[in-house]
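Quick note —
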Amino acid sequence: MKQIAIVVAVLCVTLGTCWNALGQTTLDGKSYTGTLTSKNDGKTYDETIIFEKGMIRSTACEAMGFKAGKYSLSEKDGITTVKGSVKNEKGNVNKIEATVKGDKLTGTLTGETADGKTEDTMTLTAEIVKAGKKAEHPAAAEHPEHPAAEHPK
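Predicted structure written out below.
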């Protein structure tokens, strides 16, 4: 019985190493904090992108009623590409396309109306939140660009 457990453990480590060498399969459990900058008006917003349970969350979008959405990954030459979207009750969609290289996540967030018209495209720049640090949306007093009624609790 002990030998079977050892063989299973070795297989798990070997397969896991091979799987990681083939590319990133998930970003679940990782968070990236940084900024969104509007291409329309140049305004900058604090942002935290959170990956959990196959879903992507944007704290800046959540403050405006958008819910977590699914994401997908692809990998080429050591760069992971992330594509995902978050949607609100009105049917508006914020599409997130970014690349992850090392501890940095960079890309765009494109806001579209329910009928598919682009409202704004924002530049996303963020760095990974290191273990032990909490990836939460700042308190309203620390993050004044949203009215208190729209700010997450």
